[in-house]
Amino acid sequence: MKFKPPSKRIKTDSSISSSSSLPSTQSRDAELNTMRKSMVHEAQNANNVSLRIQQARDHAVAQAQQDGCTGNFRVFNSPFGNYLVPVIPTRAELGG
């Protein structure tokens, strides 16, 4: 008796068609809308962060002016909260 190897052909399920594996237009549109909404939310969040930094910087400048600071300061935005940095002039800048 000889052993007959199984057929190498793959049986396909007739209920699965190639078109059913593609996402429908409605599901693609819903997915795109979800992605757009998340991108808008991220942009608004970034704007809120930069607005908070700008407000804190402006407050720091106003506080320094109220305290009577007459020195030179460099003002910049920083995520660490260092909004005023004293500028120490060099001898060349002082004309000496």
TrEMBL record:
<protein>
    <submittedName>
        <fullName>Uncharacterized protein</fullName>
    </submittedName>
</protein>
<feature type="compositionally biased region" description="Low complexity">
    <location>
        <begin position="13"/>
        <end position="27"/>
    </location>
</feature>
<feature type="region of interest" description="Disordered">
    <location>
        <begin position="1"/>
        <end position="43"/>
    </location>
</feature>
